[in-house]
Amino acid sequence: MADNNRTSLHGLWTSRWAFIMAATGSAVGLGNIWKFPYITGENGGGAFVLVYLLCIFLIGVPIMMAEVMLGRRGRRNPVDSMKHLAAETGHSQLWKFLGWTGIAAGFLILSYYSVIAGWAISYVFTTAAGTFAGADAALVGQHFDALTKSPATLIFWHSIFMLITMAVVARGIEGGIEKAVRFLIPALFGLIIVMVLYAMTTSGFAEGLRFMFAPDFSKLTTEGVLKAMGQAFFTLSIGMGAIMVYGAYLPKETSITQTSFSIAIADTSVAVLAGVAIFPIVFANGLEAGSGPGLIFVTLPLAFGNMAFGALFGTLFFILLVFAAWSSSISLIEPAVAWLIENKGFSRLKASIVLGLLTWFIGLGTVFSFNEWSDLTLFGKTFFDLLDYLTANIMLPLGGVLMAVFAGWLMKKSASHDELAISESAYVIWRFLVRYVTPIAVMLVFLNAIGVFF
Ligand code: PHE
C-alpha cells in the first residue's frame, strides 16, 4: 500500500481553496487571453472553438484528474513521482522520462511565455501614459510593430518578467501565489466583463459572436484540429507536470474531481469571454481576425482608447494580465525547481537563479523571432512558432496521454478509485475516458496532422 499520508517536502496547501486558486492561477494566463483569441482568429472561428471545447471536456478534464492524482500519490517532483509510482505498481523505471519531458516542456514554454508577458508589462505603461487615447487602428498597429521590432526593448521587458517570476519561485510557492491569486482571478474576470460590455456597444458585436460560435467546418483544417487540441492542454496547464507538482501539495481529503471541473470551467470561461470581447472590436474596426500573436495588442488598446475611463481600465487590465501570466509562469518552472532541490541539494534560491538565467537565455530566440530572425524559418515557422508548436501541440498532448495511460492502465483500480473518491458510475466514465478515449483521440489527431505534411 502506498504511504498515502506522506506529505510533500515543500509543505501542503493550506486548504482545498488554496489549491484551486493556485491551479486556476496556473491555468488562467496568456493562453486564455492572448493565445486563444489569436489562434481562434487564425483558424476560422466557430468550428475551431467547438473542437477546442470538446477537447477541454473529453480529453482535458479526465487527464487533469489523472495528473493531479499522480502528483498526490507521488508527492514529489514529476520525475521522482513517476519513478516512485512506477516502482509502487511494479512498472518500468523508464516512466521517469515522462517527468523529464514535462520539465523540458515547461522550461521551453516559459522561455517564450516570458517574452509575451513582457509585451503585456510594456502595455501597462503605454496605456497608463494615455498613448492610446482616441487612437485608431493604424496608430495601435504602429505602436505594436515598433515594440516588436526593437530587440532591446523586448529583452528589457522579458528580463523584468523573468526576474519577478524567479523572485516568487525563490520564496516558495505557498505564501506568494496563494495570496496573489485569490483576488487576481475575480478581478480579471470583472474587467473582462467590462470589456465584453464595451464590445456589445460596437457595431461588430453580432459578427464577432457569429465568428466565434457559428461553426463553419470548411474553415477547419486538420492542423487546426491539432492546434485546438494543443490549446486545450496548454490552457489547462496539463501534460507537463505543473498540475502534477501542485497535486503533490494537495491534502488527501480534497476532491480531485470537483476541483478539476472548477478549474476547467473557470479557465474556459475566461478564454471564451476574452474572445467575445475581442472579436467584435476586430470586426468593428475592419481588422484582420487572423493577424497572429499581436491580436490582443492591437484590438484591446483600440477599445481602451475609445471608451470612458479607457486609460484606467486599460492599465488595470494589463496589470491583471501580467499577474495572470505571472501565476502561470511560476508553475511552468516549479517542476524543474522542485527537481533540483530534491535531487541536487540546491537551495530554492540557487535553483531559481540557475533556471531563470537559462530560461532567459532561450527566450532570446523568441525575442529575435519578431525582428532580426523573422526570416529565419524552418517548415515556414520562426523559432518562436516552432517552440510553441512543438511544446503545445506535441509535447503536452503526448505527456498528457502517457499520464492517462499510466493512471488508466497501470495503476490499480482500487488505488485510482480511492484517490478520486467518486461514485462507481462516475469512476467508470472517467476510466473509460482515460483508457480509451484520450489515447485514441490524441493519436488520431496526430496522425491526421502528419498527413498534412505529406
Ligand atoms: N495554462 C497557462 C496559460 O494558459 C500556460 C501554462 C501551460 C502554464 C502549461 C503551465 C503549464 O497561460
Give a topology summary:
Layout: H1 16-27, H2 30-42, H3 46-74, H4 78-89, H5 96-128, H6 137-148, H7 151-170, H8 173-201, H9 205-213, H10 222-236, H11 242-248, H12 256-284, H13 295-306, H14 310-344, H15 348-369, H16 383-410, H17 413-420, H18 424-453
Helix pairs in contact: 1-8, 1-11, 1-12, 1-14, 2-10, 2-12, 3-4, 3-9, 3-10, 3-11, 3-12, 3-16, 3-18, 4-5, 5-7, 5-14, 5-15, 5-16, 6-13, 7-14, 7-15, 8-12, 8-14, 9-12, 10-16, 10-18, 11-14, 12-13, 13-14, 14-15, 16-18
Phenylalanine binds next to α1, α2, α5, α10 and α14.
Describe what you observe in this structure.
The protein starts with 15 loop residues before the first helix and ends with a helix. It has one domain: Amino acid/polyamine transporter I, CATH 1.20.1740. It has helices at residues 16-27, 30-42, 46-74, 78-89, 96-128, 137-148, 151-170, 173-201, 205-213, 222-236, 242-248, 256-284, 295-306, 310-344, 348-369, 383-410, 413-420, 424-453. The chain is an all-alpha fold and 454 residues long. Mean pLDDT is 92; it is low at 1-5. The chain is globular, with a radius of gyration of 21 Å. Helix 3 (46-74) crosses helix 18, helix 5 (96-128) packs across helix 15 and helix 7 (151-170) runs antiparallel to helix 15 (348-369). Phenylalanine is lined by residues 26-27, 29-32, 106, 109, 234-235, 237, 240, 242, 328, 331-332.
What structural keywords apply?
binds phenylalanine, single chain, 78% helix, 454 residues, 18 helices, globular, mainly alpha, Amino acid/polyamine transporter I
